[in-house]
Amino acid sequence: SSELTQPPSMSVSPGQTASVTCSGDKLENYYVSWYQQKPGQSPVLVIYEDTKRPSGIPERFSGSNSGNTALLTISGTQAMDEADYYCQAWDSRSVVFGGGTKVTVL
Amino acid sequence: EVQVVESGGGLVQPGESLRLSCAASGFSFSNYAMNWVRQAPGEGLEWVSSISDTGGRTYYADSVKGRFTMSRDNSKNTLYLQLKSLRADDTAVYYCAKGATIGVGSPFDYWGQGTLVTVSS
Asked: Taking a contact as any Cβ pair under 8 Å apart, which residues of chain B between 30 and 59 contact chain A?
């Protein structure tokens, strides 16, 4: 998967579900990770191997990957979830990041 | 506690060189792949390079291939990135990131705070 495409931005109301898409050719053949980055901070891994949550990441974060699209879902979105989110995949020779999606909670 | 701490950034002129370091602690450094990722001001994340646990295999983004060299010293728990022939578009915060497993391509589970490289005349 040489290129990953994300929408630049999206908004969600508190308590609602945010779904961030990441598109790439035959993406389902690759493991996808997701990172959260808040302003002035380093990225944090929130989902890896498509669906797994690292220790300490809230259960409201979930992931899926099918066909050409991976999805990061934030259920019951909270104000603290406002951040940039990046998808990432490894294609055996290089790492690819999506362009990032700015999620605004309002 | 796992920590990776970058150093070595600064202001350099186009064409000059710089070496970044990343000091690792809190985990068995020699058992994990390591990575460099950069972020230009106001832009997204860009993968730069990755290195296997032993240092025997390295991978580079096309944008830096032939100019940057990644290496590691497992006896010192330290990762390096040698930057040569620097250009203005290399200006970015450079992050060191630990791989989650021994395998190159594993997720990046711990990130440093980054070190800023500014290339300007």
From this structure: 35, 37, 44-47, 50, 59
With a cut of 70, which residues of chain B have pLDDT below it?
none
- Judge whether B92 and B80 are in contact, CB under 8 Å: no
Chain Cα centroid distance, residue A15 = 18
Q: What is the rounded distance in angstroms from the CA atom of residue A93 to the CA atom of residue A87?
A: 17
Closest CA to A82 of A67, A60, A101, A63: A101
| pLDDT tens-place string over residues A14-52 | 999 999 999 999 999 999 999 999 999 999 999 999 999
Closest CA to B68 of B59, B77, B56, B55: B59
Q: DSSP secondary structure string, B59-95?
A: EE-TTTTTTEEEEEETTTTEEEEEE-S--GGG-EEEE
- B11 to chain A, closest Cα gap in Å: 20
